[in-house]
């Protein structure tokens, strides 16, 4: 699978290398037509996923314990588990968007709201909370539940994505359809990881350049990616408990410290108040935001933002499913659902409320024209300018760069880990894949996206995420059907044996 997948990626990238100009135009129109044609399908997934997960969490299915040995204690403590889940699914994007997403919306508004008005501070922040909220975490949670159930309860090898579609597709998964599904897992990771690299690296680069007093450059971006690769390659070599777990703890400490510091030295009362306002707006308008395609106004806003975000989360979802399965031994289905939906949302909301609220205050008090910087120089430049306004900014920019690197590293580390699992034949519960295999994937998931990024640019990576997300969208629906079907079958079989025994 390894070499073959790499060849496919190179074959797809080749036209871009040979015809960069034509390639770019084609990619732009492809992104537009994909997001406009399938907007309703992308919007329907998180709604269906939330309904499905809430149903499981509220019924007896939620009590099912994910373990072959029902008496065995959980492999990771609850707090390590939450940190690892959160940091596998979130990378540098969080800091970047939390601080700046509102500023994009402030200038290009949804629902026909007048741009650059005070109302847009609340609406802009609420939209950010929505894009990283329960709908998004529900996308991650569906494969996590499906794969965990199949692995721990049905005791099947889940490192083939197709296995979790069997209940919906039957014998089809044993043929070419199954092979196609299995490859989508790898391409999902590559597209999503490349988008994260493309967005995250400039932010780290600009923070470093600003501390050193030099101009950001390509060489620096490459050095940053190499530094990041070194961090997660070492961590990956150390294995799950010593590597990813420790890296996650370190990452949490640095990023939470940054957020608390901003809350303390910034206008705390305003930040908290605005947080309440925007959470209120997001809750009140949840359905409206979840179903808005703007078919009449044709602004293109929901396609460029919401649909793209959902596609990006979907591209990461199968990897999250496998990773969460691997670390969830001993948890119940309800714990996994609530842990991801509640703590995931709370974690991202904390960043959006504090870092975003601080940025909004800068704009309102005319200390810094964040929205203008975002729209002229981009989000990475804006977040660095925002950090520069804080007392002790040099130290904070260093912390921002470090946190950016470890945030990327925790995601890439976990991704390399599951890719190694997926390409190792039959791994038992708790077993780790070969070190050389893990290191191979570390290399592939940075070098390949990096090369593609330089050839095709960020837009091509975003388009790649959307393209792989389309079949993955169907796969996630199949996973919900499979899980429900298996759970009902198993429940019926259990009831039958109980009745049989009592007779
Ligand atoms: N998601 C959560 O760069 C990142 O933060 C990775 C992005 C899919 C929007 C995750």
Automatic annotation (TrEMBL):
InterPro entries membership: BCCT_CS, BCCT_transptr
Keyword presence, Protein transport: no
Domain of life: Bacteria
Subcellular location: Cell membrane
Coiled-coil intervals: none
Keyword Transmembrane helix: yes
Topology with respect to the bilayer: Multi-pass membrane protein
Transmembrane regions listed in the UniProt entry: 39-58, 79-98, 129-152, 185-212, 218-240, 247-266, 307-324, 336-360, 395-419, 439-458, 464-482
This protein's UniProt keywords: Cell membrane, Membrane, Transmembrane, Transmembrane helix, Transport
Similarity comment: Belongs to the BCCT transporter (TC 2.A.15) family.
Matching NCBIfam families: bcct (TIGR00842)
Name this polypeptide is given: BCCT family transporter
